[in-house]
Design brief:
- By secondary structure, the protein is mainly α.
- The chain has one domain.
- The longest helix is centred in the first third of the chain and has 54 residues.
- The chain is rod-shaped.
Length: 166
């Protein structure tokens, strides 16, 4: 839908920005959901294995010198440490929240554009000022937004289009 810059009207620009906001809102909400799911998938085993490690320690203490219990306890404890370290390093929960926040901000800009498009009493000066303010908001948001991988972006957009066509 790219239009030659010299011939683009304010209405076309607003329509393009609206489309852009709709897509990016969906992409960031999708990314937030994916990271929340990854956080759950990594955090769940950490909780379960932590409990197992604590239980294994008591089993080892009860059994005295049982080598199998000692090895199991060591493996479970190391697994907990590795998974907890990954969870901290990958920051899935934090990333999910960042994407949800950015998605909400794109939604707010989208509603501003929709509201302005619905107005009937808009002057050329109003339109120019509005377009300038939206451009600044989009520029600031683009700087603040966490990155989305190409595959995650394509997956979200294709899912959005499939959902829209139903």
């Amino acid at each position: 839908m790219a239009t030659e810059l010299s011939s683009i009207t304010p209405e076309q620009l607003q329509a393009e920005w609206l489309s852009h906001c709709i897509e990016l809102q969906y992409v960031h909400y999708t990314a937030g959901n994916i990271y929340a799911r990854l956080n759950f998938l990594l955090g769940g085993p950490v909780v379960v294995l932590s409990a197992a490690a604590g239980t294994s320690t008591f089993v080892y203490l009860e059994s005295g010198t049982n080598q199998v219990a000692l090895i199991v306890t060591g493996i479970v404890s190391m697994s907990v440490a590795v998974l907890a370290g990954l969870q901290t390093f990958l920051r899935f929960s934090e990333r999910a929240e960042q994407h949800r926040t950015v998605g909400a901000r794109y939604g707010a800009i989208k509603r501003k554009i929709e509201q302005m498009s619905a107005r009937k009493d808009v002057t050329e000066v109003d339109t120019d000022q509005f377009i300038d303010s939206i451009r600044k908001e989009l520029d600031a948001l683009a700087q603040d937004a966490p990155g989305v991988s190409g595959s995650m972006f394509r997956r979200a957009i294709s899912h959005m289009r499939v959902t829209e066509s139903r």
